[in-house]
Design a protein that fits this description.
Structural class of chain B: mainly beta
Distance between the termini of chain A: 78 Å
Oligomer: heterodimer
Helix content of chain B: under 10%
Order of helices and strands of chain A: HEEEEEEEEEEEEEEEEEEE
Number of helices of chain B: 0
Strand order of the largest sheet of chain B: 2-1-4
Helix content of chain A: under 10%
Largest sheet of chain A: 6 strands, antiparallel
Order of helices and strands of chain B: EEEE
Radius of gyration of chain A: 31 Å
Largest interface: A-B, 30 and 32 residues
Largest sheet of chain B: 3 strands, antiparallel
Chain lengths: 246, 68
Amino acid sequence: MRSSLAAALRWLVLPWGATSGNRIILDSDDGSIKVYEGNTLVAEMGFAVGPANNEPGFITWDRSGTGYYTLHSDYFIQFGNVNAQGGNGPDVPAYIEVGYGPGLSEPSTLRLGSGFIGPNDFASALVELVSGGDAARPRPKVTVLGSGSGATANADLAVTGFLTSGTERVGRATISVTVANTPVSATVTYPAMITATLEAFATVNSANPLTAAASVTTITTTSATVWLNRTTVGSSVVHWQVKART
Amino acid sequence: MTTPPDPDFPPLDPEPPHIDRIAVCHTEGCEMNGVEVQVRLYDNPDGIYRCICGGCQTYITDLKEVPA
């Protein structure tokens, strides 16, 4: 009876004594809690899990044995040293925040925060993803901002690749003028823009604006007409741009 | 595809002579390939109606009449 009690203090298996089937094992030897589905280990929390099996953490496996390092939270998950202290008081590790957290007004919100650690850091870079689809917010929205006040309420966004949007179209049109001083039109098409509130621009690739000029009319969400005038017969490249007005 | 003109850019007054057509780009790989766009094409001195695809910057020759 005493040995059985000692064993129970080192291991606790629920249902009591189960050696197969669905069960939960609290193992004080390796400091873990293991969850079995049938005879398959599907979740473990303990001192030595994690990617290298030597870090405290929580891991789950699917039924084929593939491991996933997952954690579900209805509000806040922090990463890194949560006790970090820099030269400017309490620092903030990187984090993921969801739902109705402080400053979040929509349940379908995901906020990624860089955190700020160190004497020269005062604010996090934040990326906020908010759902949309109703009249008040017809489209889902992604916002990049800073967590501080003043200048640190803003964040820079650098894109090393193309940045495309449904609110801007740019192109060029090579147009031949066949009668001097008589404008020639060419209508350009483009993928549909998301709004009809537009501004349009056109300019000629020319070193002498007195001999060639361009303009634009008839702007729609899918086309615009550019005009070219030259004082001589010949062709010119007209650069054009259509942008949504905010 | 019929798209309303931007209310801030009303039709020219007086509107120069023009025709309305359905323009379709057929450039392989162009994002506008096969997309029908209703366009307004204004008369030019040489009698040629010019329409250019903004996706591939090439002239569009497939200009269908707009269904009545």
